Every structure is written in structure tokens, then in C-alpha cells.
Predict the structure of Cellobiose dehydrogenase-like cytochrome domain-containing protein.
Amino acid sequence: MHNSIILTAFTLITSTIAQTTTSTFTDDNGITFWNSAWDTTIGDGDATFGMALPPATETSLVAEYIGRLVIPIPSSGTWFGVSHASMMTGALLLIAWPNGDDVVTNLRYATGYVAPEEYAGNATVTTISSSVNDTYFEVTYRCQGCWSWDQDGAADARLPATTASAQQLIGWAQATSAPANPSEKDSSIQQHADSAANIFAVNVASARNTAYTDWITKTASSYPSATAAPSSIGAPFSNGTATATATATSGLTTATPTAVASCAANSSALSATYDYIIVGSGAGGIPLAAKLATSGDSVLLIERGPPSSGRWGGTLKPDWLVGTNLTRFDVPGLDNEIWADS
Ligand SMILES: *[C@@H]1O[C@H](CO)[C@@H](O)[C@H](O)[C@H]1NC(C)=O
Ligand SMILES: *[C@@H]1O[C@H](CO)[C@@H](O)[C@H](O)[C@H]1NC(C)=O
Ligand SMILES: *[C@@H]1O[C@H](CO)[C@@H](O)[C@H](O)[C@H]1NC(C)=O
Ligand SMILES: *[C@@H]1O[C@H](CO)[C@@H](O)[C@H](O)[C@H]1NC(C)=O
Ligand SMILES: *[C@@H]1O[C@H](CO)[C@@H](O)[C@H](O)[C@H]1NC(C)=O
């Protein structure tokens, strides 16, 4: 057993999460997981997330994994969410909660800091086993297409890499209230607790296992598909002031807006040659750089100002965002402040 890395999405959370430990764990199905346990501060005891991946040679299975959740249930009820892209918005989300003796799982998608809609794309989640007692729910599931999925024209691919040090970022969030109708897959849910959301990195090599192809035969075929019912948008996930699980290392990397400090420190960026150099990552520079990079040109986008969004280390934020990794640039509605002091 060794200590894991917690990629801190929210600085204050780090102080409340005593320690995340990782190990491998073999469950009652005989499935061996890369396993992480940590205190979400909700319910009594640690939450556990496990991931099993197919060997990299199984090319038809690259977009899937088997996941395992063991989640404490507070007396107020709960739901637990997993983001397959570490941030909440624009990501495939898996949400699970107890319903009597069963565990309901379903896939959702959030286009903004609003109630995530029911996911209608080609990824599926299928339960392998589950159990519920007074204080915990536990579910082992197969998530197919979950590293490469589409939704209403949006698509994303985050296939686990094959390098020895590869990591897969996972975001999570937990709520202190049960969904409005726990028996309904498309139930509305209340926002997760402010402090109960973070991201961590799964060590891909530790999760891969050649027995994976045997494990997926355990999939309970009778369980209803997650992509069934149409959405009913319920209570807001957030009231729009964005306390959610943003952040992480996503997005366009070809034209990377970086801070002056890190750019100047990257001497190879300064001596390399580019098809285009765009000065200023404003409302004109960013889309132009993205467009050019998408068409295959190499682009250097340079910016004099400080880092803006949280993912690049930005710090400009109103008091109510302190303790999150969000800045005023991440929050729709704060755009009238974006020019102040920057
Ligand atoms: C409830 O379930 C959890 C998770 O499976 C388990 O660790 C715990 O021992 C169970 N508690 C009881 C009282 O059976
Ligand atoms: C799901 O959609 C994505 C994005 O369009 C695509 O890359 C992937 O191959 C699709 N998966 C399946 C199983 O059809
Ligand atoms: C929205 O949430 C924020 C942060 O929790 C809170 O400060 C604010 O009062 C809420 N606004 C409304 C209109 O509920
Ligand atoms: C914000 O998130 C980014 C990307 O995950 C990370 O590099 C950075 O350290 C985070 N910042 C804080 C203050 O947590
Ligand atoms: C430095 O610049 C080079 C050339 O543009 C780029 O490939 C590399 O990723 C950059 N490194 C960092 C740490 O930003």
C-alpha cells in the first residue's frame, strides 16, 4: 500500500481530506481493482473508488472500464457522482445512489453548472453487482464507451494511455441529500455538498489486468440500460454561482494559453518555429488559435496577462469562490469583471 496523489481541485478540501490511500483490491466477484479510499466528509467512514482496465492489447475494449464504488450513506441520504473527465461540465458523469436494497446507476451530462441532463449518447453503464446496508452502498459496474463518447454532437476521447506512468483523471462529488425519486433513474438531484468534490489520478498500469476479458462476462444482462429514459431537468445542480467540480487538465492543448511566467521559462517554446504566432489570448485570439490548430497548423498563442481560469493556475476570484479552483473567468456571469486587475 502506498500513498496516492490527490490532484487538488480545491485547496481547502485538501486540509479536510486526511489522506487518500491506494492499493489493489479483489472483490467478491474476483475482480481486482486499482483502489482508492478517502474520507469525503459525508457519512461515516471512507468512500472507495476502484477501477479495472483491460490490457492495452484489447483494442476493442479501450473505451471501457469496470468501476467499483463503496460509498457511506449519511442519514440525510446521498448520491455519488463520478466524472470521466475530472470536471463537471462537458463531461460524461456517472451518478449512483441507493434505492432500498438496490443501487441505481445512470449516466448524465452537464452543459454548464446546472442540473445534469440524462445522457443520450452511446456510452452505457451496466451493473455487475451491488449491495446496500444501513451505512453504505456498494456497486460494481461496467462502463462501456465511457472514455470515448458522444452526446448531442459533443464528443470526447480520453482513452487511458499506454505509457508506464499514465494516469487517468477522475472527478467525484457527493451530496448530503437523496435524489427526489430514488427509484427513478432520471430523478432530479440536488447539488453536491460544496466541500465534497475533488479529482484524483488513477494509475493506469496498476488498473490493467489480462483477466479483464473474463470479468466482463459477469455483467448482469438483465439490468436496464442507463441510456433509457428521456431527461427531466430537475432541481438545479447549482444555482449558477458555480460551486461545482470544475478544473483539470482538459481541452485544447495545441494552442495552450499559458501564463507569461511559464511561457518565458519554456525556452523551447521561444526557440521553436510556428506556422502562426498570435499575440493576445483574448476573445479574438483564442478562437483564431483554436481554429488554426484544429486545421493542423502549429500555433503559438502568447498572452501578457496573468493566468485566467483555475486550470491554468488563475487566482482572480470573488470571496465566495475562495477554496475552489474556480476563478471569475470560469464562472458565467462574472465576465463583467474579467478586465479588472488583469
Ligand atoms: C455495510 O457495507 C459496507 C460496504 O460494503 C461494509 O464495509 C460494512 O461492513 C457493512 N456494514 C454492516 C453492518 O454489515
Ligand atoms: C461513441 O461515440 C464516439 C464519439 O463520436 C466514438 O468515437 C465512439 O467510437 C462511439 N462508440 C461506440 C461504441 O459506438
Ligand atoms: C447561490 O449560491 C451561493 C453559494 O452557495 C450563495 O452565496 C448565494 O446566496 C446563492 N444565491 C441564490 C440566489 O440562492
Ligand atoms: C487547479 O487545477 C489545476 C488542474 O488540475 C491544477 O494544476 C492546479 O494546481 C489547481 N489549482 C489549485 C489552486 O488547486
Ligand atoms: C515547451 O514548448 C514546447 C514547444 O512548443 C512544447 O512542446 C512543450 O510542451 C512546452 N513545455 C511546457 C512545459 O509547457
Q: What stands out?
A: The two ends are 45 Å apart (CA to CA).
